[in-house]
Amino acid sequence: MAQFPTPGHLASWVGLCPGNAERAGKRFSGRTRKGDRYIRRILVQSAWAAARTKDCFLATLFFRMGQRRGLKKAAVAVAHRILISAWHIIAEGTLYQERGGDHFDRRNPERTARKLTRRLENIGYQITLVRRQCAAKRPVVDLLECPKCARWRLPRCIHLIRHKQTPLPPTQHSPQLSRAYFRSTGFQLNSGYP
User: Fold this and answer.
1) Which residues does 11 contact at the CB level (< 8 Å), separation at least 6?
2) HSE-CB for 176 with a 13 A CA cutoff
3) Cβ-based neighbours of 18, under 8 Å, separated by 6 or more
4) How many CB atoms lie within 10 A of CB 182?
5) How far is the C-alpha of 18 from the C-alpha of 29, rounded, in Å?
6) CB < 8 Å & 24+ apart, contacts of 167-173
7) Which has fewest Cβ within 10 Å: 15, 86, 94, 98?
């Protein structure tokens, strides 16, 4: 990744950054440039696939942008976000932390409550909001069940999610405890975000 000092350089090379056509103070098309057509196609297809996942930040971002700008522009924006995340993972060695599908609701809960209250009042309901006390957070446990995913230091096994297999036998990289044990004891499994 030495060729791309910043994620913006990589996005420009791939062709996933917005264009800037302006003449005499008037903005024209913001169409993206062609860039590397193979990587660009793979990333946009990945964005469409991410839009169909459940409880995923990228799916939430896709539909949030799709409401305002259209689904195709949202797919390019999510592809850009995937590329930026990949640059940080490869260049800096950081781990991907999934923010969850409710990221924007958790970011500003008062605004979300006002918006949902207004929508319910518009259809004829009378709402009284009472804030409840937050329950104590259960401890988070990282669980790696696959030696391949443990080697890549993924927060959960992608092979079990994709193929719905039974877990592989435990190795020195993976804990010897099962998901059912943690669910029965009340521990929260780490799904990638704190």
Assistant:
1) 17, 80, 83, 84
2) 2
3) 30, 32
4) 17
5) 9
6) 170/145, 171/147, 173/144, 173/147
7) 94
Residues 6+ apart with CB under 8 A from 57: 98, 99, 100, 101, 103
Higher confidence at residue 84 or residue 152?
84
What type of residue is 35?
A: G
**Pick the residue with more confidence: 64 or 150?**
64
- Tokens encoding 99: 């923010």
Residue 94: CB partners within 8 Å, gap ≥ 6? Answer: 88
Cα angle value 96/99/100 (rounded, 5°): 125
Domain boundaries in the chain?
A: 7-92, 140-189
For 154-183, how does the pLDDT look when each residue is reduced to its tens digit (9 = 90+)?
Answer: 666 666 554 444 444 444 444 444 455 445
What 37-40 contacts at long range (C-beta under 8 Å, 24+ apart), as own/partner pairs, is 39/14, 40/14, 40/15, 40/16, 40/79
Structure-block tokens of residue 35? 């860039």
